[in-house]
Please model this.
Amino acid sequence: MSGSLTPMRPQPSEATFRVAVVGGGPSGFYAAEGLLRSALPIAVDMFDRLPTPFGLVRSGVAPDHPKLKQVAAVFDRIAHTPGFRYVGGVAIGEDVPLETLRASYHAVILATGAMVDRRMGVPGEGLAGSRSAGEFVGWYNGHPDYSHLRFDLSSERAVVVGHGNVALDVARILLKTADELRHTDIAEHALGALAESRIREVHVVGRRGPCETRFSPKELHEFSDLTSCEPALDEDDLAPHSFASPANAGPDTRAALGMLEAFARGPRTKPRRCVFRFHLDPIAIEGDGRVERAMFRRTRCGEGDAGAELVAIECGLLFSSIGRRSAPLAGAPYDEARGVHANIEGRVVAASAVVPGLYVCGWSKRGPEGTIGANRACSAGTVERVLADLASLAAPPLAAERLIAGAAPRSGSVVDYAAWKRIDAAEVERGRRAGKPREKFVTIGEMIDVGGRRADACCR
Amino acid sequence: MAYVVTDLCCGCRYTECVTVCPVECFHVDETMTYIDPDNCIDCGGCVPVCPVGAIQASYLLAPDKVSWIEINRARSAETPTIISKLPPLPTAEERRKALSA
Ligand SMILES: Cc1cc2nc3c(=O)[nH]c(=O)nc-3n(C[C@H](O)[C@H](O)[C@H](O)COP(=O)(O)OP(=O)(O)OC[C@H]3O[C@@H](n4cnc5c(N)ncnc54)[C@H](O)[C@@H]3O)c2cc1C
Ligand code: SF4
Ligand code: SF4
Model:
């Protein structure tokens, strides 16, 4: 029974359109929902390279944001819609070529997210102690690609380059006390390491000014409420009108600016600090064998002194958090400039000609922007295109059942939704004993063991 | 905490907000939308997409808007959910212009 998967539902009838969704994150689930809600007879198989579904809701969203993770209940409901099937532990492009997948379904929707961290491209980026935010986030969230990493938390100061919400997550997790994290679903190894951390100050550094950040007010607000840490600004970075709202600013921009302005005047009484730094462009990371300082050039616009002044920040750890792009997938044209699968409004295109039956949604369609729900509108748009095209698409020459049965993933097994529910229940039970909502399994081997479908159990 | 639709939405009802809510917790009546505070997961995604700035986090509400917390709770219990975009009310375009002027 190597790699076999018992169909959870009756085989779809011949009249049914078969659609494969590649990626079990929010956009993949919202695409499946749109397809299954439509009036057409459609069966959806969702593939993910991991045994566990939910993409960045599981491995990106910070452990101290439990309320957001309740969105998983919506995905769970979608997964129980008749016609839906989950095929976890199968990486398209590695375990199964995209071409074979396309030949087994009427249509394929790529929902592969943005797994690759952008690099700053400055000298010294490869030094020990220089990391990407994505590696740290994956580590504390127990993503099996990153759970083996080690971070040296023995210095007093860390630098995070980037002014988006991911940078705020990284800074907050570094600055919270172990007691503030203990009852979250943070991975056990990360909690242990962070409890020993000597980091007392994190500088969150951006190239632009306070009115040009991508911080959401909600995430900024959390810094005024931490047990042992308070937010601060550095006066040297500010100009007289740094906090003036641009004329067309929306409510979020105004709220974020107001909070940063309040941080600048806040008290200094707690032992840890998060310092928001502005108008600093990274030019090098320096140190003897490992990170000792980060070098920036001051870029204050409109002052005539841009580029004149160099600023050094001593630190033992540096994270770049300057964006992500989609991992290219063999067989899908890639848009280098945007860092996504090349597409026009969700239809994949090669040199502006539509590739029939191939679509894209979510972060791999429009880049890493917007909240979880933005993917709902995004996937709904792609599904509209699929529904419009389906009747004209050729019937697949190959059988999806054969493809699934023959998928030989790294782990030697595939995980269906019932197996994921067993993994889920086991994680929740482990968490209950530790006073946490969940204690994740952090290796694929453990997940597959618990899912109960390990085909090569004898050779462990 | 939850997010709250305020009276700026009245007579406008662009339903941009509804399309980005990950948990479908918007409700609607003839004049405006409401957020069900028990289902809202505080993602904040609906705030920037509302063309008239009608939605705000409850803790950021101006004093004269605080009463909308209770109105959202009460009206969302009495009205149907809305899961996709509605055609804007006939007065919408006018309202948007008036509010952005
Ligand atoms: C650190 C971080 C924190 C965030 N915090 C928040 C927050 O607080 N609030 C909020 O609203 N949003 C947050 N987001 C944004 C949110 O997570 C994204 O909007 C959303 O996850 C994007 O959905 P997606 O489906 O496009 O991609 P993803 O969630 O990345 O899902 C992609 C899926 O595809 C799978 N996959 C990739 N390649 C393949 C392949 N070749 N074969 C099979 N499967 C594959 C991956 O394993 C993954 O499961 C955060 C994002 C990050 C990075
Ligand atoms: S987008 Fe704004 S104005 Fe439109 S319905 Fe939603 S809250 Fe009301
Ligand atoms: S904050 Fe998020 S969950 Fe709450 S109503 Fe707005 S979009 Fe929906």
